[in-house]
Design goal:
The chain is α/β, with parallel strands linked by helices. It contains eight helices and 13 strands.
């Protein structure tokens, strides 16, 4: 049996599911393209689902072997697991390898155990209107038809949340502010607050909890949970080891879900403590 100091890892009933979200995990180790060793050496068999918030390595799709390495760690081809691609995952343009390894597009919706997740690619621009419009129509369709889910969770790498009512400026928590990102090629203006956010409000008004999670953070905040003026949740979670002295310890996002009661909650856990617990340096295994 495994014991942990956090309340999230206290002994729970058999129907309690545990998810982990990991953002900005890239780190060069001896000039190798790798995942941060602390992330690399967690025991992922403990978690029911693994969600990646992008920038997994410096050059995730530079070569096929790196993609195989990522899949061996996180089982990204598992339908329950998700990978919201960042610029460091996509910039070598080997999209066919990403599809071959994951079996998924860069944007899609998934329903499991009473919650709907949407993986979104806010890196698509009007230079590819076909994909941009297709993603937007998917978001519209999900928001219009969702009814049986207790929660709608949107996973992304980038932050287009500028001017969402009640949220601070993205520069205070995200690595980059994608304030000019537009959601489609036919609405003007098509910024996130004018297009995506109203759709999320429709979902919330159905009595469904809406949670946005992004992974492009770590330089400023290691983990920040916010609520808009309308009661929609926004979470930024990512790591960057060389900023710990100024910004505090790295943290990862942990989610606890009980489908039978529709309970879902989250907290940020110290990555070093979590790594130590899994590797016999803390409370660890018994």
């Amino acid at each position: 049996m495994i014991f942990y100091t956090s309340s999230l890892f206290s002994q729970e009933g058999g129907d309690t599911l545990k998810y982990i979200f990991l953002g900005h995990t890239k780190k060069r180790v001896n000039d190798q393209v790798k995942v941060d060793p602390r992330i690399e050496n967690l025991d992922y068999s403990y978690f029911d689902r693994v969600w990646l918030g992008g920038d997994v390595t410096d050059e995730s799709n530079l070569d096929y072997e790196t993609l195989e390495y990522i899949d061996s760690l996180f089982d990204v081809s598992n339908p329950s697991n998700h990978w919201a691609f960042g610029n460091h995952d996509m910039r070598n343009y080997n999209d066919e390898w990403l599809m071959e390894i994951t079996g998924k597009k860069t944007y899609y919706a998934h329903f499991e155990n009473g919650i709907t997740t949407m993986v979104l690619n806010y890196g698509i621009t009007p230079s590819d209107c076909e994909k941009l419009n297709e993603q937007y129509k998917m978001i519209q369709n999900v928001c219009d038809t969702i009814s049986k889910s207790s929660h709608l969770i949107l996973l992304s790498h980038y932050c287009p949340w500028k001017n969402v009512p009640g949220l601070p400026d993205p520069h205070s928590y995200a690595n980059a502010n994608f304030k000019s990102w537009i959601a489609n090629c036919y609405d003007k203006p098509a910024l996130f607050p004018n297009t995506i956010y109203p759709l999320l409000l429709k979902v919330k008004n159905k009595g469904i909890t809406v949670i946005n999670i992004l992974g492009d953070t770590g330089s400023n905040y290691k983990g920040k949970s916010m609520v808009s003026s309308d009661g929609i949740y926004f979470i930024a979670s990512g790591i960057k080891e060389n900023t710990q002295e100024k910004r505090g310890p790295d943290k990862v996002l942990m989610i606890k879900h009980v489908p039978s009661t529709k309970y879902l909650d989250w907290e940020f856990l110290n990555l070093d403590s979590l790594y130590n617990s899994f590797n016999g340096k803390g409370i660890g295994r018994e």
